[in-house]
Amino acid sequence: MNLFSQMVSLGHQQVVFCQDEGVGLKSIIAIHDTTLGPALGGVRFWPYASEEEALIDVLRLSRGMTYKAAISGLNLGGGKAVIIGDPLQIKSEALLRRFGQFVEGLGGHYITAEDMGVSVKDMEFIRMETAYVTGLPEEMGGSGDPSPVTAYGVYLGMKAAWKKVTGTESLRAVKILIQGLGKVGMALAKLLHKEGASLYATDLSARQLEYAQKEYGLQPVSPDAWYNQPVDIFSPCARGGILNKDTIPHLRCAVIAGSANNQLADEVEDSLRLVDRGILYAPDFLINAGGLINVYTELEGYNRNRALARTEYIYEATLRVFTAAEQRGITPHEAAMRLAEERIRAISALRSRASISMFSLSSA
Ligand code: NAD
Question: What pLDDT was estimated at residue 139?
């Protein structure tokens, strides 16, 4: 892979390779864009098959964070880090603290957080070496589990999509299928049950399904049959890539709105397929931004009510994306990407204007 041409084509500012043989650390930190603020994104500890695979992942994920922050109205840029190796085999206090030192060395351009393969305890070790950490547990003065805030954002994005399709935002008696009753899916089920939605759900775990059936009266659907289930709204809250050329032709819903990251297997082709099928897709990186909004709020001194109030922005932002898609004749996914880029450009221009007027004042 030609790294510099990849950085140019994806728009990355900086990629930092960090190693310390003594503790077994091999890490890559990718800073995509800091126009709006410091690059924030979690650190993923994963047994990548190759260094190239790790690099591709960190470049892709950090770019995604830029778009998520920008469309959510946050003053944050996009970044991400990966640590290469099997966490079960090589994770140690020394390795994590060494990673923290590298983060510290970036002087706040990159702020790290928890991601796959990294636990709350691990974040405590990283925090010992750097202040540029967010998403800490509540007992450490942090914001704790972001999932309820993520679920609230998904709920609001879903209401906006339903309003776009039917003219009403009420989800009472609306048939909704949730795929994945994990931390986000279960919190979403609770909100939707309270509103009187008619719930269906699928999960690989029978225990999760039984619990949700008892608490929220939802009807279980087999994990293999989700795309044949006739519903009004499908909410993917499990894994990515589930909207693809094989599943989209079978879908029987009017709206898709869920928390899973990267739901579209192919961002361009599959968002067009959904438009062709007449299904309104609420872009995942917009409506699942509640978790990011939550950690952003932590940077200012955490307050759950402020995080929830900020998350309410998702409702208006989702409607704005649908309107832009209609006006420009593009898919909602592309509209969300373009609006994010336009915000970055507008703020960048604002900064240039401010520095020109500072220069004029100082040279007058
Ligand atoms: P989780 O691990 O707590 O829950 C995932 C659930 O999905 C589990 O109950 C699992 O059994 C189920 N599942 C997995 N594969 C499935 C399948 N094929 N069919 C049905 N169910 C399946 O994860 P989470 O934190 O609830 O996150 C859910 C999704 O939302 C993930 O894609 C995550 O990246 C994304 N997300 C989460 C947050 C957050 O705040 N937790 C923020 C943004 C995005």
Answer: 85
Q: Which helix (H) or strand (E) holds 353?
A: helix 332-363
Specify the pTM: 0.92
- Longest C-alpha distance within the chain, in Å? 73
A 10 A CB-CB count for 113 gives: 25
Cα separation, 327 vs 247, whole angstroms: 28
Cα–Cα nearest to 198, from 165, 233, 169: 233
245 noted as active-site residue: no
Question: Chain-centre distance of CA 203, in angstroms?
Answer: 21
**pLDDT value at position 359?**
61
Nearest 5°: the CA angle 174, 175, 178 is 125
What is the reported pLDDT for 360?
66
pLDDT reported for residue 225: 87
Q: Which residue ranges of the chain lie beneath pLDDT 70?
A: 357-364
Task: Report the separation in Å between the CA atom of 331 and the middle of ligand 1, taken as the mean of its atom positions.
Answer: 25
* Domains parsed from the chain with CATH numbers: 3-59+77-133 (3.40.50.10860), 147-333 (3.40.50.720)
Task: Judge if the beta carbon of residue 261 lies within 6 A of ligand 1.
Answer: yes
Query: How far apart are the CA of 311 and the centre of ligand 1, in A?
Result: 20
pLDDT of res. 350:
86
Ligand 1 atom nearest to 202, measured from its CA:
20
CA of 209 to the centre of ligand 1 (A): 14
Give, using CA atoms, the residue closest to atom 14 of ligand 1.
Answer: 238
Task: Identify the pLDDT of residue 297.
Answer: 95
pLDDT of residue 355: 73
Would the CB of 182 count as within 6 Å of ligand 1? Answer: yes
Q: What is the pLDDT of residue 330?
A: 98
Ligand 1 test: best mutation among 184, 205, 229, 261, most atoms within 8 Å of CB?
184
Q: Measure 344 CA to ligand 1 centroid, in angstroms.
A: 30
